[in-house]
Amino acid sequence: MAASESDFNLKVVLVSFKQCLNEAEEVQLDHYLAGWRGLVRCVGETSARRQALLATVPGRSRQAALCPEDGGGVPCPEVSAYTPHRFLNSLGAIFSFISKDVATKVQIMEGLCGGPGREHYSTLQSMVAYEVGHKLVDLERRARYPDSGCRTVLRLHRALRWLQLFLEGLRTSPEDASTATLCTESYNASLAAFHPWIVRRAVTVAFCTLPARRAFLEAMNVGPPEQAVEMLSEALPFIERVYSISQKLYAEHALLGLP
Ligand code: 1PX
């Protein structure tokens, strides 16, 4: 299970990536997708919990309770005390666009993993062998196979690199580090190379609204910041391993530039 039905806990999500590799060090797609589902789910859940929490604050309307980074301009200590939703909501429309994009890609993969060719979609390795072997990928144009498993996972794979770099940055940075800087640096070292200028510009502006490092660590819901840092030290090597095995596989089949 990627995440409990009621709580976002980053540790539970990251465990999915730990469970990804089988004994032959193949990437099992069910766990890989469970990890992504957990990351996306945290957005909806935390938003819903925020609404529920707002409803419990006496004398505060929805608008009045908005925190400054939400555009409301009025500090709301009762709601601010509950951090998990704050940084995710603070990205507003852009984050919602990002999470929808990931959700769509996860759905495409669910369709393939549960479809008529499902036996070919148990691992990343079997998927690549099947799609490449049956010429179900087009290295020149996107149009012919816009929803191939190879191109869809490639987008998630690039995003996993961003996540790994960003969480590593959070883990190793000093207490007063700027999350906007960490996020921008990890984005520039990973996803940015594949996005057009307008997307790079929009997300870089959105990063400036991110809350402090401490709020991020608390938002992981695994205890105090020191415990979150410890959890990241344990979990990140698994993400790194999944990433490098996938990267090697895609490189071997010359799929890293799949349009
Ligand atoms: C406690 C920390 C938890 C943080 C969890 C956050 C998970 C966020 C995952 C971000 C995944 C981004 C996926 C992007 C995939 C992609 O490159 N899609 C583009 C290409 O797709 P296509 O099918 O057209 O070839 C698509 O054009 C989408 C572009 C949107 C821009 C995405 C920018 C992502 C920047 C990093 C996310 C920052 C989120 C900060 C959250 C705290």
Automatic annotation (TrEMBL):
Highest taxon of the lineage: Eukaryota
Family: Belongs to the GLTP family.
Cellular component per GO, a single term: nuclear outer membrane
UniProt domain Glycolipid transfer protein: residue ranges: 86-221
Keywords carried by this UniProt record: Cell membrane, Cytoplasm, Endosome, Golgi apparatus, Lipid transport, Lipid-binding, Membrane, Nucleus, Transport
Protein name: Ceramide-1-phosphate transfer protein
Membrane-spanning ranges: none
Alphabetized Pfam families for the sequence: GLTP (PF08718)
Localization (cell): Cell membrane; Cytoplasm, Cytosol; Endosome membrane; Golgi apparatus, trans-Golgi network membrane
Annotated catalysed reactions: N-(hexadecanoyl)-sphing-4-enine-1-phosphate(in) = N-(hexadecanoyl)-sphing-4-enine-1-phosphate(out); N-(9Z-octadecenoyl)-sphing-4-enine-1-phosphate(in) = N-(9Z-octadecenoyl)-sphing-4-enine-1-phosphate(out)
GO MF annotation: an example: ceramide 1-phosphate binding
Coiled coil: none
Membrane topology note: Peripheral membrane protein
GO BP terms: negative regulation of interleukin-1 beta production
